[in-house]
């Protein structure tokens, strides 16, 4: 089956990203297709490469990035939500005059149209959050 | 864009200003309106407060985004369902809500109400008929 995943909560504060990761991994292991993973609301915080959890804890950002690399996943961060919360890539830094970026290169910033398209194209959109 | 047309329901469950979910949900609705899908909005639980009239955020510093709901009709988003039980549980009636309308192109642009009050049971049936449910 073709799935898309939406993640609405930030890392560590909330289990949503962990659950979404495990669901995505399990779906891939069973041979399903993941059309897109879309990060919205505080979920955009799952994409900053500056995340530094204690060494004995999971690194939620790197875990998504590694899974993304292994399976060529489309990890998309909502641009409007990202701008509000200070998630920045090269393009956004240039457009908005910021002196730094923080997005992990395995993620990309794009618009909400990507979420709608994912819902249209996938057989199931599975949403993680409150 | 796709030739596929699906039934989209945006399920609005939260009060407008305590969290950002309501405002960012509305942003999805506005972007999604460009995709020519069949769109409905439902307001349940504290979500009914999102379309209460006379919202004033001037002393809280939050952006008052309630006027945006009045523009939904212009985006062909005109199926707005409000759960009766949620209104009653909060001491609200239809008169407490903004008069949201749309203009029907097929009837000489007659102005029609976008809001319909439905029972919890009716809404459950509607949710079952959807292809995509965005729950915010």
What topology emerges from the helices and strands here?
The complex is a heterodimer of chains A (130) and B (136).
Chain A: E1 2-7, H1 16-29, E2 33-39, H2 60-71, E3 75-78, H3 79-85, H4 90-96, E4 107-110, H5 113-121, E5 124-128
Helix pairs in contact in A: 1-2
Chain B: E1 7-12, H1 21-32, E2 38-43, H2 67-71, E3 80-83, H3 84-89, E4 101-104, E5 110-113, E6 115-118, H4 120-128, E7 132-135
Parallel strand pairs in B: 1-2, 1-7, 2-3, 3-6
Antiparallel strand pairs in B: 4-5
Total domain units of chain B: 1
Structural class of chain B: alpha/beta
Oligomeric form = heterodimer
Main β sheet profile of chain A:
5 strands, parallel
Give the ordered list of helices and strands of chain A.
EHEHEHHEHE
Overview of this structure, please?
The complex is a heterodimer of chains A (130) and B (136). With 130 residues, chain A is an alpha/beta fold. Chain A has one domain (2-128): Hypothetical Protein Ychn, Chain: A (3-Layer(aba) Sandwich). In chain A, 38% of the residues lie in helices and 20% in strands. In chain A, strands 4-3-2-1-5 form a five-stranded parallel β-sheet, with helices on both faces. In chain A, helix 1 links the parallel strand 1 and strand 2 (33-39). The longest helix of chain A has 14 residues, at 16-29. The mean pLDDT of chain A is 97. Chain B is α/β, with parallel strands linked by helices and 136 residues long. Helix content of chain B is 24%, strand content 24%. Chain B contains four helices and seven strands. The longest helix of chain B is centred in the first third of the chain and has 12 residues, at 21-32. The two termini of chain B are 24 Å apart. The model of chain B has no long low-confidence stretch (mean pLDDT 95). Chains A and B meet through helix 3 and helix 5 of A and helix 1 and strand 7 of B.
Features:
heterodimer; A: 130 residues; alpha/beta; Hypothetical Protein Ychn, Chain: A; five-stranded parallel β-sheet; 5 helices; B: 136 residues; two-stranded antiparallel sheet; 4 helices; 24% helix
């Amino acid at each position: 089956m073709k799935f898309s995943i939406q993640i609405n909560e930030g890392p560590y504060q909330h289990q949503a990203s962990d659950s979404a990761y495990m669901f995505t991994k399990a779906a891939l292991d069973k041979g399903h297709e993941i059309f897109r993973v879309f990060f919205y609301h505080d979920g955009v915080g799952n994409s900053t490469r500056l995340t530094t959890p204690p060494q004995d804890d999971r690194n939620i950002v790197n875990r998504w990035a590694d899974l993304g690399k292994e399976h060529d996943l489309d990890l998309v961060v909502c641009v409007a939500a990202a701008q509000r919360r200070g998630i920045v890539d090269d393009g956004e830094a240039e457009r908005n005059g910021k002196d730094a970026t923080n997005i992990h290169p395995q993620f990309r910033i794009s618009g909400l149209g990507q979420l709608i398209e994912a819902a249209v194209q996938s057989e199931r959109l599975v949403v993680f959050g409150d | 864009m796709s030739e596929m047309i699906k039934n989209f329901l945006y399920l609005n469950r939260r009060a407008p200003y305590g969290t950002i979910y309501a405002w960012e949900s509305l942003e999805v609705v506005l972007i999604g309106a460009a995709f020519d899908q069949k769109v409905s909005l439902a307001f349940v639980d504290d979500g009914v407060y999102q379309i209460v009239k006379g919202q004033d955020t001037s002393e809280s510093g939050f952006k008052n985004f309630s006027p945006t709901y009045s523009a939904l009709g212009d985006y062909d988003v005109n199926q707005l369902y409000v759960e009766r039980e949620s209104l009653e549980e909060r001491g609200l009636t239809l008169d407490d809500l903004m008069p949201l309308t749309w203009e029907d192109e097929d009837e000489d642009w007659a102005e029609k109400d976008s809001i319909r009050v439905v029972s919890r049971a009716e809404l459950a049936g509607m949710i079952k008929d959807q292809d995509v449910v965005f729950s915010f």
